[in-house]
Amino acid sequence: MPDKSKKKKMATNPFSRKFLFLILAIAISISIAVIAFIAISRSGEGVLSGLSVAIYKPPQCPCCSEYARYLSSLGARVEVAAIDDTDGLMDRLGVPQDLRSCHVSIVEGYIVVGHVPADAIKKLLSERPNIKGISLPGMPPGSPGMPGAKEKPFAIYSFNSSINLFILTSSPP
């Protein structure tokens, strides 16, 4: 005759086979969800990996600090220097008056003025044109580091001794 006490013990055991499979299925589902979340949250990471950027900004400018955080979030190594005379620096660098903004950056020998989106910087570095730099003049709403929504496509200019439109289809930051 079978031992009834043994059968009863198995039925009340919370760690039955079905229960263990249920726990395993839940754990696997949670693991997959966490991995997917990490992959999605890092999808923009590394766009500027390994790139060194030096930003020169006025001491009290919060949007310049936000721009530095934007570049850092995309993998760039950013050094920020607060200087009192950004106009004097832009004079020495040869940045035309019409193309100035609150800060200026140096990226692999190029001058990058203002809140220039990462895709423009990538285009500049992939094409390596014979220019001094590029600029997104002023402080357009919705540009990296600036509050507000992007109102129109960004006009990014290249410059040497003359100013030209730097052809770029810029996506939102």
| Mean pLDDT over the full residue set | 84
Beta-strand portion reads: 15-25%
Query: CATH top level of the domain at 52-165?
Result: Alpha Beta
Name of the CATH architecture of the domain at 52-165:
3-Layer(aba) Sandwich
How many strands, which pairing sense, and closed or not: the largest β-sheet?
A: 7 strands, mixed
Number of strands: 7
At the third CATH level, what is the topology name of the domain at 52-165? Glutaredoxin
List keywords for this structure.
7-stranded mixed β-sheet, 5 helices, 173 residues, Glutaredoxin, alpha/beta, 18% strand
Put the structure in a nutshell.
By secondary structure, this protein is of the alpha/beta class. It has a domain at 52-165: 3-Layer(aba) Sandwich (Glutaredoxin).
Would you mind describing this structure in some detail?
The chain is α/β, with parallel strands linked by helices and 173 residues long. The chain has a domain at 52-165: Glutaredoxin, CATH 3.40.30. The chain is 37% helix and 18% strand. It is built from 5 helices and 7 strands. Strands 2-1-3-4-5-6-7 form a 7-stranded mixed beta sheet, sandwiched between helices. The protein starts with a helix and ends in an 8-residue tail after the last strand. The model has no long low-confidence stretch (mean pLDDT 84).
Task: List strands and helices in order, with pairings.
Layout: H1 4-12, H2 17-41, E1 52-57, H3 62-73, E2 77-82, H4 86-93, E3 104-107, E4 110-114, H5 118-127, E5 133-136, E6 157-159, E7 163-165
Parallel strand pairs: 1-2, 4-5
Antiparallel strand pairs: 1-3, 3-4, 5-6, 6-7
